[in-house]
Every structure is written in C-alpha cells, then in structure tokens.
Amino acid sequence: MMSFVFGSILTLAGLSILCNAIFGFHIPVFKLLLAAFLFVLGIKILFFPRTLSHPFTACHKEEKKGDNYEVAFTSSTIDLRYLNDLTAPKTISICSNFAHVTVFLPLDVPLRVKADTAFGTVDLPGYQMSSEYVNLHGASEPVLTVYINSKFSSVVVKA
Asked: Of 79, 87, 92, 139, which has the fewest beta carbons less than 10 angstroms from its beta carbon?
C-alpha cells in the first residue's frame, strides 16, 4: 500500500513539473502532496487502524524454541520454579513493555539469563546493572536459557 502511495506522489509531482514546463500553467505540487498524504492517512485510520502501528514482534530469534511471555502496561509475576526437574534444554523469552515484572528462577537447574533493556532496569541476582547472569551448578552448558527484553520497564529476577 505504501509503495502505491509513494509511487502516486512521485508520478503526480513529475506530471506537475511537466505540465508547468510544457503548457505553462502551475499546479501547486506541495498542496496536492499534503492533501494526498492527509487523505491516505485518514483512510488508513478509518479502515485499517492496526496498520499505523507496528505489531509486537518477537524479542529474540530463539523464542520459537521455547516459551514466550509478553507483559505490557501492567505488573506481573512469572514463576519458573516449576522447571526444577528440567533436563532437556529449554529457552524462555520474556518481553516487558511499560511494566513491572518479577521473575522467579528454579534453584537447581543450570541456567543463563541474558538481559537487554532500554530506559528501564533489569535486576539480576547479585549483579544489578549487568546484562547476563550465569549459574551452571557445575554443569558445562545451561539447560535453561532466559532472554529478557525490557523497554521502559522494571524487571526483578530472583533465584
């Protein structure tokens, strides 16, 4: 849809310049462009309200292998302690937007927590202001990997 709009705008601008050069009459290009833009914007708002904002996309590529938690405009608790008997590798993704989230981690599972934040905080156990927390419990690789993406949020991770 947007390529059609921009193509139409460029075509009208080129046609206006040609008409002005060949026939000598002036077409107010910028007024037409502004009117066309406002018209298309109004149609999009009326009939396609979701297309103006970008849909919420995946936080991490790895989330399709595991679970995904999305928290927005609220306060929430995510309890992962039920994964205490986990033996196969698992990936969990937590996306927090304008929210406060408390995450409880399992105690005896080798795990890695990776955090990414924009205008917020992610408090990891004993490592506040760090972007990664690792507790392997003597194992060579983590069994549980938790990705946290926080935008304008506060996330507290408790082990």
From this structure: 87
